[in-house]
Amino acid sequence: MIPQQEPDFNLNHLKLYYGKLFPFADLVRWVSYGNDGKHPGCDQSYLGRREFSFTLENDIYLRFQSFNNTLELENSVKEKSPVKIDIGPVYSVDPAKRYAYAQGENNVFAPVERELIFDIDMTDYDDVRYCCSGADVCLVCWPLMTIAIKVIDTALRDDFGFKHVLWVYSGRRGVHCWVCDRKARRLSNEQRGAIADYFRVYKGNENSHKKVSLTGAALHPFLATSYTNVLKDYFEKNLLTGQNLLATEERYEKILNMIPDESIASELRGRWQDSRRSSSAKEDINVVRWEQFKQVLQSGKHKAQGLRRCVEEIVFSFTYPRLDMEVSKHMNHLLKAPFCVHPKTGRVCVPIDPNRCDEFDPTTVPTLSQLIEELNYEGSISDIDGELNRTSIGNAITLFRSSFLQPLLKACKEEIENSYNLKLQQSKNSLGW
Amino acid sequence: MEIVRPQSRRNFLSSSNDAVSVPTIPLYRSAPSLEVRLEEFESFAIDRLRVLKGISDGMSRGKKPEEMENLVKDLWKVNMRHQHASDVLNKDIISHFVLRLVYCRTEDLRKWFLSMESSLFRHRFRVLNAEAQRAVMEEFNLPYRAVSNVEFESIKEKLGQVARSMGQPAPTADAIFYRVPFEEVPELVAGRKVLISQGYAYVAMNQIVSLIATLFRSQLSKTLVLTNRKWTSSIREQEKHRLTPIVEALCSSYLGPDYSQSREYADISLKDIDQVAKNSFPLCMRHLFDKLKEDHHLKHGGRMQLGLFLKGVGLNLEDALAFWRAEFSKKVGLEKFEKQYAYSIRHNYGKEGKRTDYTPYSCSKIISSTPGTGDHHGCPYRHFSEENLRAALDRMGVNSRAMEDVLDKARNRHYQLACTLTFEALHGVPCDAGINHPNQYFSDSKKILQSKQKDSST
């Protein structure tokens, strides 16, 4: 468990962090998407139409902030020391001047671009983790986030064809995902909703107990691939024993309740109630029971409709990603910027490499106080890259640049040049006749 | 389109006789250059409105696709015929353009019209024969190519998986698939009804309707905005004495009240609210109300659904703040309430942000919502498990005989009928109009209770 680390967060430290370590330039280069260049095809107003939002100490919200360059953002952040910086959409006009534009009959103030975003929060998994609950996370439940990253990241790239996907630790109990391809940024709300629904398997609310329902004679290829490549292994090799999913009566009852056929449930119940006495300590009780479960359900005589999917349904229930749908569906949702410091844990919202996400450990993510200590250790050096390299945030920034920012900016540059040339071509043609 | 006086009726489209034999759907790309008599201007529009309204009712009853198909076919046959076969197409076109004028004028009207016209188009397209379908596709000038044999072979297995996941047989080698950017077919993506690979969806011939309907919709959506501009800049003023009154009268009679301003039974006060909730709230609101009292908290979807309902019921802003504060402060504390939640309540009342006065949610909006973990909003008849629904109805006081009827309706996805039956069981009075809006449930209930009170006192 990560204890509440209030002492790790202190406003003077935060000031120092913004002053010495926070990568303003990288952040601005990212959200400018190449429009900060010298090319005539660049849209110079682009960055200035992006909403930033600051949360100050005492929960004061400053929405609709906008900045024209790195320096403006940096100065404002240093002056106000926000405990949280959120990034919103790019609007049709400078959001700071929205009232001036709203006077006319046609309300032209509207979001025009926004990364496709996903927010996955551990609290949504409270019914399938027994190690901790609410805001806490530990290494036993963190694999649920690893699974989410693997499943969503693979589908975003292989199915939807996106290339520029950024994963970020949310600082406490979850992960954020930013899909930054030009096409993704220009999706309509309806199209965003469609993608979110494509990912949605977990249905049901507080008033209906059925959580995952898989029907039909086969699984959709996306679900089938997720199941065989990620979910099944994580369930059997990790969560089953890690969470002790079948160890006690209360826990196995929950799983038995998901079997639509009561006679099979009671058959297993009978065996498990007995096996308490007879089981040897050699094999893990969860594994033994899961094997029995599969054997009973997948044996020839129970291959009836409805039971066929039961094993998969249970694995999906305990592993499949649970998205906060509303965040993904609308362009105007705010999302916390990477490299912010979580005010409750003091941990930095560092990027996560999706290819090595199983190595990510939320309990070793650098904290504000740790960074400040590292800064103080060597005394003061003025070179900013020197500061970065010396502190443990250096790796995070290197990862951000090499695996995300550089390929993204290369693609942006090409897109800007191509669309500029195309426009040039078109205007030439129209001049010709 | 030119609107003429009744006495000066001239010939319609001269070529209309040729058009009779081709059973196709016009795409309404531009207003036709033909003359329309004033009374037809109105009567055609009303006929088409009957169709659209019928579709709207069918959808909010949760009718299944095949039921909708028959419904639309009947509605169209009954309302859109014309004594001259040659004029059927003209009536179709004219009525569409008149309603476009009627429904271009506000965001809500446009949304409704767009949704109903798209649905109508979809159903009409689906019943066309293959040749006519191809003709429509050609008119849209689709830039997509059919998947080649080689490509088909390489993805055959996955296409088969998709088909079987929907309970359909695997496609054979002569099946036609189109490779389409996934953004063009959002509803197929949302339902996982297509194979998606590297940004492209593989759309089967029998799914092409989804693609076409999406195109139709986006085209109509754009033109509605343009029509609105024309309406406000010139038509409204020019036609002040002739068309404008007709146009303005046409929409209001059919959308039903939106309950944004409570009227007859306005102003419930905070001290009565518990009693009123018990007697006159529909189950969806009653459930949210009870949960709020129990947990001292509701997630966003629940706050919106209940909050706007209470506003429609007549709870003024001050009382609404007091109401929510009383509950939330028990859980999150007063300070956090003022900081995090008070804003959105004022926002609902149009006092913050873009200052829109939000309207209470209708049944169809509530039914189509997707409550997730921790959520209590939505329509209980749709979103509750049967056990929970049974228990909830029992708590409301629905007797066991009526209970089975209600559950039966809910099982068959007639959510609003289930709610109507609940209403009838609790009030002992038939509700012929059916329940279409939680605030309608409320006001009908109040009406009945008040008249009962009067009867017993005299």
Automatic annotation (TrEMBL), chain A:
InterPro entries reported for this sequence: DNA_primase_S, DNA_primase_ssu_euk/arc
Example of a GO cellular component annotation carried by this entry: alpha DNA polymerase:primase complex
The keyword Disulfide bond is assigned to this record: no
EC number(s) reported in the record: 2.7.7.-
Gene3D superfamilies: DNA primase, PRIM domain
Coiled-coil regions listed: none
GO biological process, one term: DNA replication, synthesis of primer
SUPFAM superfamilies: Prim-pol domain
Essential cofactor(s): Mg(2+); Mn(2+)
GO MF entry, a single one: DNA-directed RNA polymerase activity
Superkingdom of origin organism: Eukaryota
Keyword field: DNA replication, DNA-directed RNA polymerase, Metal-binding, Nucleotidyltransferase, Primosome, Transcription, Transferase, Zinc
PANTHER family attached to this UniProt entry: DNA PRIMASE SMALL SUBUNIT
Similarity comment text for this entry: Belongs to the eukaryotic-type primase small subunit family.
Name this protein carries in UniProt: DNA primase
The organism of origin for this protein: Phaseolus vulgaris (Kidney bean)
Automatic annotation (TrEMBL), chain B:
Protein name per its UniProtKB record: Uncharacterized protein
Biological source species: Phaseolus vulgaris
